[in-house]
Amino acid sequence: MFKINSSPHTHSSKLTARIMLWVIFAMLPALATQIYFFGFGVLIQIFLAVSFALILEYMVTYLRKKPSLFYVADFSVTLTALILAMAIPPYAPYWVVLIGTFCAVILAKHVYGGLGQNLFNPAMVGYVILLISFPVQMTAWIAPISLLSEPPTFADSWSLIFSGFSSDGFSLQQLHSSIDGISSATPLDSLKTASKMANFSLSAVSSSPIFGTFMPLGELGVGIGWAEVNLAFLFGGLFLIWKKAIHWHIPVAFLTALLLISSLNCALSPVSANPIWQLFSGATMFGAFFIATDPVTASITPRGKLIFGALTGLLVGLIRFYGNYPDGVAFAVLLANICVPLIDHYSRPRVIGHSKKAGAK
């Protein structure tokens, strides 16, 4: 009896591993920037996520009687864990990243058959499950450590993640107490919270210490740390395009759509942030270059990539301006993933020798 497998019949972990390593390498500047502005908690979360993801990958592939080392060596699960760890708050409790990693690797990846079979971006599935299930822990972002009177050391970071208190006995909220005017840790959180107040004004929001003049854009300065992290992701993304590890279609369409809807919102609302501000806040560049471009769950045709990227950027803007969450990258990517089969069906290039109408059947 012959063993029958679905196409493609030839698999190579070397090509996959090379692409994954390029993506991981391109994320290193953003990782270093995130550690510089938000502390060693980022590094600890990455260690927990990657270690647990590798263990899960090995166990599941072993139980499925697959060559475990072959799948671990393609670095796909490492990249998934890295993306998830960099997306969650640096000082979230240790069990948050472990639950998110389990959901990403098991529920979003192996339940569908493993790499290449999953319908949704695994890291974003894990992130959304965490955000919906544990909103308090998932919104407890620390302010830039340069604003703290006592920035957490590596030992403090480890203690905060595993016990909730620093080695000196301070909680995350107590570390923030030395900063006046902090109602939420992220600029998008602050803008979202303030916009619900009756006396909302951009000048009042910009008075918060977390807004700096790194890139002054009207009344609202870009958030300290967040602009630099987005710039690092932008440079990393351009590097990936240069190396042809990703295509330009999705990031360009993503950022263009977000810029257009932000400009429209700015024109209609006298108290909305500058459109460029939106591009360098939250997870914009992270989402455009490293999350939405996932080759398994994104569209595969050139026109489809443009549609997919534009749809994702549009959804990010709609969620930011009219939804309950300050940043909508994860939800936007998952909603766009649902549309991929339809997008690919209607964006397929015409086969030579067949009419356009016949090719669409």
Task: Provide key terms for this protein.
361 residues, mainly alpha, 18 helices, disordered N terminus
Q: What this model shows, in words?
A:
- With 361 residues, the chain is an all-alpha fold.
- It is built from 18 helices and no strands.
- 48% of the residues are buried.
Q: SSE order in H/E notation? A: HHHHHHHHHHHHHHHHHH
Largest sheet: none
Helix content: 55-70%
How many helices in DSSP terms? 18
Total strands: 0
Task: Report how far the terminal alpha carbons are from each other.
Answer: 36 Å
Tell me the Rg in angstroms: 21 Å
Structural class: mainly alpha
Principal-axis shape equals globular
The overall average pLDDT, rounded, is 84
Brief account:
It is built from 18 helices and no strands.
Topology:
Blueprint: H1 13-38, H2 41-63, H3 68-72, H4 76-87, H5 94-107, H6 122-133, H7 135-138, H8 154-163, H9 172-176, H10 187-195, H11 202-206, H12 226-242, H13 249-268, H14 275-279, H15 284-291, H16 302-322, H17 329-346, H18 356-359
